[in-house]
Amino acid sequence: MRSQRWKQLERDAARALGGVRVPRWLDFGQSAPDVIVEDFRLVVDAKARRRFAHHSLMANIEAKYCEANEVPCLVTKAERQRGECVTVPLDFFASLLDRMRKETRYEST
């Protein structure tokens, strides 16, 4: 059951983000990302675990601060890290990519 969970997560991420899942049956064991989203140059590694610390932080943000139609967003930066990271729900991020794709198509015509 566990092996199916990460495979399904990869499929779901590829579908939501408009990317392509990188199959591993030919080169199993080789290092490669799980999903590629070419039009945004996204290289995605999907991880399915029992729990993640930042998911608890996201749940707290949502419970404490978000109204019904608001989206929790977590910005993190480790000591000495260059740049910051943003965590948002997958469906929200996917909707942003879709909006950008529509805007880009509109502008290019």
Task: Outline the secondary-structure elements.
Elements: H1 2-17, E1 20-21, E2 35-37, E3 42-44, H2 53-65, E4 74-76, E5 85-87, H3 90-108
Antiparallel strand pairs: 1-2, 2-3, 4-5
Structural features, described:
- This protein is an alpha+beta fold and 109 residues long.
- The chain has 2 domains: 1-50, no CATH class; 51-109, no CATH class.
- It has helices at residues 2-17, 53-65, 90-108; strands spanning 20-21, 35-37, 42-44, 74-76, 85-87.
- Strand 2 and strand 3 form a beta hairpin.
- The relative contact order is 0.14.
- The model has no long low-confidence stretch (mean pLDDT 91).
Summarize the structure.
With 109 residues, this protein is of the alpha+beta class. 44% of the residues lie in helices and 13% in strands. It folds into two domains: 1-50, no CATH class; 51-109, no CATH class.
